[in-house]
Amino acid sequence: MPYTRVWDEECPRVWDQWEEDGAHWTVQDLDPDDDELAVELFIRHFLTDELLLNSLGAHKEEASVVDARAFWRKNVSGRTSLACYRSEGDNKTLVALNACPVNCVDDPPYDLEAMVSKRWRQVVSVLVHAESLCDVFKELNVDKVLNGAGLLVVPQWRGKGLGKKLLHAREPMCRALNIRATSTVFTGPASQREAQHCGFETLLTLTREQLDRAGLRFPISPDYVLKLMAKKYD
User: What PANTHER family does the entry give (predicted)?
Assistant: First the structure.
């Protein structure tokens, strides 16, 4: 069964907080009341900004949007996703988020055939391919990991290091939930740099040429590299 966190009276828990620019900032559990807002932010920003999705024009295809919306609804439903909120007076704004499902060693594989869009299926197939080449459960000697299914900062709030704040917050959440590791296929150079800064190690690198040979062809730079990266909490 997919991992779902017990949502009790202690939730949502705050994992980081600070004051800046006359506002109060928190990194906390994504509030269930904001699930649909989170999904729409992914549709509005991640679907257009993520390199592989953008190269295929997924944001311009209705079927891709349908698949994307179902994907993110599922991945925030486990109640382990992280959100950054900016509060000024009574105004609280969701400014960044990281969809973080928990993957377990005995989870069923992705049902690629259930996806309506060939474009969306192709991008998810990249994740499946990377994870087939590197078994993170064996590599890290764990039975579950906090995964990443999309990291975004709303454009207005970029440049403040919020992506790194969210990646750092995976550690206190994992420790609280007795999850010993986190892993993610990072598809963009900016998120790869942020992950490295946060102590993630690269377990697998795939080049554009290697993706091509696997039948996963994208109209992207020949220098493109994606990385499966992980961090263990001992």
Answer: ARYLALKYLAMINE N-ACETYLTRANSFERASE-LIKE 7, ISOFORM A (PTHR20905:SF32), N-ACETYLTRANSFERASE-RELATED (PTHR20905)
If pLDDT is split at 50, 70 and 90, which confidence band does 234 have?
Answer: confident
6 lies in some domain: no
The 10s digit of each residue's pLDDT in 36-52 is 999 999 999 999 999 99
Residue 1 domain-assigned? Answer: no
Residue 228: which CATH number? Answer: 3.40.630.30
Tally the domains of the chain. 1
Does any domain span residue 137? yes
| Domain of 29, in residue numbers | 14-232
Percent of the chain whose predicted confidence (pLDDT) is above 90? 97
Three-state SS string over the chain comes to: CCCCCCCCCCCCCEEEEEEECCEEEEEEECCHHHHHHHHHHHHHHHHHHCHHHHHHCHHHCHHHHHHHHHHHHHHHCCCCCEEEEEEECCEEEEEEEECCCEEECCCCCCCHHHCCCHHHHHHHHHHHHHHHHCCHHHHHCCCEEEECCCEEECHHHCCCCHHHHHHHHHHHHHHHCCCCEEEEEECCHHHHHHHHHCCCEEEEEEEHHHHHHCCCCCCCCCCCEEEEEEEECC
Kindly state whether residue 160 falls inside one of the protein's structural domains.
Answer: yes
Angle, CA 194 vertex, CA 199 and CA 201 arms, to 5°: 35
The number of residues making up the chain comes to: 234
pLDDT digits (tens, 9 = 90+) for 176-195: 999 999 999 999 999 999 99
Residue 1 confidence (pLDDT)? 56
Residue with tokens 């973080």: 100
Structure tokens at 62: 């209705």
